[in-house]
Amino acid sequence: MKTSPDITDAARVVPPRRALLGGRIRPGRVWPLPGGPGCAGYARRALAEALTALRASRDVIADAQLMVSELATNAHQHACDHSPHELWFDPCDDGAGEARCAVFDAFADAGLPGYSWTSGDCGRGLSIVRELSGGRWGMLRARSRTGAPVHGKAVWFAVPVRVPAGPPLAAS
Hints:
This protein is of the alpha+beta class. The chain has helices at residues 7-10, 39-53, 58-78, 124-132, and strands at residues 12-18, 25-32, 86-91, 98-105, 137-143, 151-160. It has a six-stranded antiparallel beta sheet. Strand 1 and strand 2 form a beta hairpin.
């Protein structure tokens, strides 16, 4: 059985760049997501580690894990042939009291699907993200943060955290 790469070893601090929202410049972390169905589990573990380092509450971490699981599953199911897939984490230091997480894939032409209660098993994940994030979520056109820049999209959400003062998060 093949195991996923170690989360701590795979994370890297990305250079300061425009944040997911607001155009402010700040550093963040990025993890390349493995292909296949293990993508969501890997994203949940990586995000839990990052939020734990910020001393986020267990409830916030649990909600964030559910949201990132939905986004990573969507990337795997709907953009599996459009790599790279990446998990982005941007702790905000602008007084907003939130951190932003995104799942990137290179399926740039895809938009966010609409939601229908009659759509069967598909489409409910984004409603979960909308509800748990309190409406602080969306999609933006972006470039990958690992390797050569690839155009795609990032679906993001925000969670409340108290970002400690001091240097940016560093990969361990």
